[in-house]
Structures are given as C-alpha cells and as structure tokens.
Model the fold of this input.
Amino acid sequence: MNEQIARLVQLQKLDIIVDDIDGRLKEIPELIEEEEAKIVRENEKKEAVKQEVKDIQVDLKNWEIEAGKLEAEIKKNKEELNTLKSNEAYSRMHKEIGEKEKKVSDVEEEILKCYDRIEEKEKEIGELESALENFKKQVKENQGKYRSDAEKLKLNKKEVEEEIAPLKKEIKEKLLEEYEKIRKVRGTALASAGDSNCGGCYRELMPQEINNLIEGKIVRCGSCNRLLYIDEKQNGTL
Ligand SMILES: [Zn+2]
Done:
C-alpha cells in the first residue's frame, strides 16, 4: 500500500474513535439531566398526594361545620319542644329532631371517613418520601457514574489525540487537507477497494484503477472522491 495512504488509513481509524468518543461525551449531560428530571417527576407524585390531603381536610372542615350547625339546631329544637302546647306540634318537632340526629350521625360517618382517608394518604406520603430518598441516592450514583464515564472518555480521547498529532506530521500537507475536506463532506475520506468496488459508494472500479492501487499510486474514486486503499485483509479478493 502507498505509504501516505497507509498513514491516512491509520488516521481514519483514530479519527473514528475520536468521533465516537465525542458522540458519547455529548450524550452524557443529557443523561445527567434526565436523572434530575426523574427526581422532579417522583416529587410531583408526592406533591399530588399532599394536595389530596389538603382537599380532604377542606371536606372535613365543611362536614364539621355542618355537624356543628345541626347540633346547634337540635339543641334549640329540644328547648322549643318543652314550650309546645299541641300534641301535633310536639310530635312534628320530635320527628324533626329525630331526622336531624340521623343527619348528624351520617355527617359523623363522613367525618370518620375523612380521617381514615387522611391517615391512608399520610401513610402513602411517608412511603413516597422514603422511596424518594432512595431514588435520590440512586440518581446521585447514576450521575456519578456518568461523570466518571465522561472523565474516562476524555482521558481516552486525549490518548488518541496524542497518537494523531505525530501521525499527521508524517502526512503531506496537501494530502491531509484533501483528507479533511472529504471527511467533512462524506464522514469518511478513505474507502477500501475490496471486492473491486469503492467501499464508500460501491461504484465498481476499473481494472486500471485497481492496477494503480496495486502499484502503490494514490487513487481517488471517480464518483465519491474518496481516497481508495487496499484493505490488507481483502487483498486476495482483488
Ligand atoms: Zn466511491
């Protein structure tokens, strides 16, 4: 293989590694943010139950007011009862008191139900709170892992870049410029000429092009412009 092309093949391998690292590094802040959003969602669940408790407390207060009113009325009616002269008025009032007492007992039942529901919801809030604490720990752990992944990737990238720098110095400036230009447009600047096709755009290569490659000349794909190379592993198929 042409020596310059061999260096570019090596450069392309390293550039692909760096691109891959950059891609993964770009995702990490999003992953960390997503962890934060999980906490917000869990917290919202808890806040929703807290709101339910508040609503029940409003109901409870209303029932208690209702019970107070009824009891005051019953007390007043009982006092009136003694002042009534006719049997008819007496039994009507008596019946009315009975109905109100029944209502009071219904209201008291509602009040008890409210207390039960509040107790139930408070328990649920307690459970959500402890789940949230565990969740926060988990999130912190995950975020820590992502951050250390990022550090490792950065180190890794630095190592690869340290390999790239001296390699670039070994490549002729014009060829390197060409490589960078094609890479920018096509993603990869080199394509293997295995199976007598351009590995980038799959155009069939002409025998002359293959001969030139075998002779160690620099050959560009006439279609996608990539610099062609003979993949050592595929050498035999040419
Ligand atoms: Zn091509």
